[in-house]
Write a structure and sequence with these properties.
Structural class: mainly alpha
Radius of gyration: 26 Å
Order of helices and strands: HH
Distance between the termini: 28 Å
Number of strands: 0
Shape: rod-shaped
Helix content: over 70%
Number of helices: 2
C-alpha cells in the first residue's frame, strides 16, 4: 500500500468515524431531551406532599446531574465529530498536495552515489 492509499484509507475512516460520533451525539442529545421530560414528569408524579418532598430531596440532585452529564456528553460528541471532519479535510488537502507534487516525477530519485 502506498502512502497515498494509506491517506485515502485514513480519510475514509475519519469520515466514517465522524459520521458515527455525530450520530452518537445526536442520539445522546435526544436522550438528554427525553430525560428533561422524565424529570419533570417524575417531579409532578411525586407531588408536593411529605413523601414527594423527601423523594426529591434524596433524588433530585441525581436527576439534575444525569441531565447535565447527558448534555455534556452530547456536546462533546458533536464537537469531536466536527473536529474529525476538520481532520478529514486536512487529509484531503494533504492528499491533493501529494498528488500535485508527484505529478512531475517520472522515475526513481537518484541517491547521489
Amino acid at each position: 500500500m502506498s502512502s497515498l492509499d494509506g491517506m485515502a484509507y485514513a480519510e475514509r475512516q475519519l469520515l466514517a468515524l465522524s459520521d458515527m460520533v455525530n450520530e452518537l451525539g445526536g442520539g445522546v442529545a435526544g436522550v438528554a431531551a427525553g430525560h428533561v421530560g422524565a424529570a419533570y414528569a417524575t417531579r409532578a408524579a411525586v407531588t408536593d406532599d411529605d413523601y414527594g418532598q423527601e423523594f426529591w430531596r434524596l433524588h433530585g440532585e441525581t436527576f439534575e446531574t444525569v441531565g447535565e452529564l447527558l448534555r455534556f456528553l452530547a456536546g462533546r460528541c458533536l464537537c469531536e465529530g466536527e473536529n474529525l471532519g476538520h481532520a478529514r479535510v486536512g487529509y484531503q488537502e494533504a492528499d491533493a498536495a501529494s498528488a500535485g507534487a508527484g505529478a512531475g516525477v517520472s522515475g526513481p530519485v537518484s541517491g547521489g552515489r
